[in-house]
Amino acid sequence: MIWPTTLFLHHDRDTNHPPIKSRNAPRPHFTLKDRLRSGYHRVWYEATQALRWSRRPFRPGSEGPLTNLTPSQYGRIEWLATTYHVRFEETSSPETALLNYAYLDVLDRARHAFDWTVSVNQRVCDLGSANFVYAAALHAFFHPAQLVGVEVDGHRLYCNGRSRIDYARGHIQELPHTEYVTADYCHYVRPADLITAWYPFVTPKPLRAWRLPLSLFNPGALFARVANNLLLGGQFIMINHNSNEAEVARGIAEDVGLVCTGHYVHEIPLCSRIENPVLTLWHHG
C-alpha cells in the first residue's frame, strides 16, 4: 500500500490534447458576512495544512451484520453484495458499510439506466474524496488498475484528535493499488482514464457548509483540470445533489468542452435523502 502526500506531475501533452481553460464560469456574489466567515475558515485551513497532523491509519471496526434495515434495503443490499462480491459490513462500521452500499447502488442503477459500459483495469481518479470512506465501493464497481483519491482538505482535524488523512488511510489500507493525495485538484496534473466527482462544489453554499475558505471556490478551474487530465476516450462521472445543481454543473462542464452522454436521476436511493441525486456521464467533445 502506498500513501503519498505529494503530487506526481505530468505535462499536459500526456493527455493528448492542448490545455483547456474555462471561459464562462459563473462569478458568485459574496457578502461581507461570507468573506468574514471565509477568513475564519481560511485560518483553520492553513493551520491544518501547515501542521499536517497524522497519527496512524484508522478505521472504525465491524460490528457484524447490518441491522435495522427495511425489507427493501435488505433486499437491495443482498443483491449488490452478491452481484459485486462484497460484504462491506465484514470489515467496516455499519455507517461506513451502508454508505458504500449506497454509493454502489447509485453507480449500478445508472449503469442499467443508460446501458453504460464500464471498462475494468483503468486508471481511476476521484476528486474531492474527503476521507475516502467510499473507496471500497469504487473498487467494487470499477475494478481499477489504479485508484487515486484527491482531497484539498486532507489534513482536517477531527474532535477525537485524528485527522482526515488518518481515516482515509484506514479506509484504503486493504484496497490494492489505491492512493490518497492531499492536493487542490485545480492544480493536480495526472492523466486518468476515468474521473469521478461526488457532489463537487459548483455553488458557494456547500463550500461554506463544509467550512472551507472561498478562495478554494473555482469550479471553472476544477472542470478545466478534469478536461485536461482526462485521457482521450476516457469518461468523467459526476454526481450532484439535485437537478438544479446538475444544471449549473452542466454549464461549466460544457464550457470546457465536455459532452454529456448519460443522465440519470436517482429517484429510489438506498438511504433516505431530501433530494434526488443526479449522475451524469461525460467525455471529450
Description:
With 285 residues, this protein is of the alpha/beta class. It has a single domain, classed as 3-Layer(aba) Sandwich (Rossmann fold), CATH 3.40.50. It is built from eight helices and seven strands, in the order H-H-H-E-H-E-H-E-E-H-H-E-H-E-E. It has a seven-stranded mixed beta sheet with strand order 3-2-1-4-5-7-6, sandwiched between helices. The longest helix has 20 residues, at 32-51. The protein starts with 31 loop residues before the first helix and ends with a strand. The model is unreliable at 1-17 (pLDDT under 50).
Outline type = globular
The residue fraction in helices comes out at 25-40%
Uncertain segments are 1-17
Tell me the name of the CATH homologous superfamily: Vaccinia Virus protein VP39
The CATH architecture = 3-Layer(aba) Sandwich
Task: Give the mean pLDDT.
Answer: 89
**Fraction in beta strands:** 15-25%
